[in-house]
Amino acid sequence: MEKEIVNRVANSKLITFDLEDFYPKGERISFDISKWLYEGVVLKEKDFRAFVSAHDWSQYTDTFVALHCSTEAIIPGWAYLLLTVHLTPYAKKVTVGSLEELETVLFSEIIHELPLELYRDKPVIIKGCSHKTIPSTAYVLLAQRLQPIAKSILYGEACSSVPLYKKK
């Protein structure tokens, strides 16, 4: 008599939370303003404004833009604001920093807005592997939001997870 194989993972009440399911669609662009600086290091307001006025901002439609300067130039705050004002009608999101910082901002906003009532008093596993780049901070923020709600929190895959938290 053969023993029936039972899929305990499929039969468990464990809810898998995959941050990749919330990955915002759209191209990520790193916008380096150093090319608009005199010799790459000096911002001349009149020249900078001329570059901004002449630039085709529509090419950033439905993108996520990270503004930065790759040189050691000191950039006045208004310069990033001026670029943002021109990008806002087209881009989905504009930040100052690296592409990694852009992802952190995107996921921070997403996680903050998530309705988590579905996870109340349930065992939750935060899926660890993904095909897209998910910033570490996103996992931390998600764990913080889930802790007061979930019965337990695990990390990884259902077949090999790491326990993180269990409500007392």
Low-pLDDT stretches: 6-11
Q: Helix/strand/pairing class, anyone?
A: alpha/beta
Helical amount: 25-40%
With strands numbered from the N-terminus, the spatial order across the biggest sheet is: 1-5-6-7
Tally of separate domains: 2
The helix/strand series, from N terminus to C terminus, equals HEEHEHEHEHEE
Q: Could you characterize the architecture of this molecule?
A:
It is a single chain. With 168 residues, this protein is of the alpha/beta class. The protein has 2 domains: 8-24 and 103-166, no CATH class; 28-91, no CATH class. It is built from 5 helices and 7 strands, in the order H-E-E-H-E-H-E-H-E-H-E-E. It has helices at 8-11, 45-54, 77-87, 99-113, 136-146, and strands at 15-17, 28-32, 64-68, 93-96, 123-127, 152-157, 160-166. It has a 4-stranded mixed β-sheet with strand order 1-5-6-7, covered by helices on one side. A 3-stranded parallel β-sheet has the order 2-3-4, sandwiched between helices. Strand 3, helix 3 and strand 4 (93-96) form a beta-alpha-beta unit. Helix 4 (99-113) packs parallel to helix 5 (136-146). Mean pLDDT is 92; it is low at 6-11.
Please outline the helices and strands:
Blueprint: H1 8-11, E1 15-17, E2 28-32, H2 45-54, E3 64-68, H3 77-87, E4 93-96, H4 99-113, E5 123-127, H5 136-146, E6 152-157, E7 160-166
Parallel strand pairs: 1-5, 2-3, 3-4, 5-6
Antiparallel strand pairs: 6-7
Helix pairs in contact: 4-5
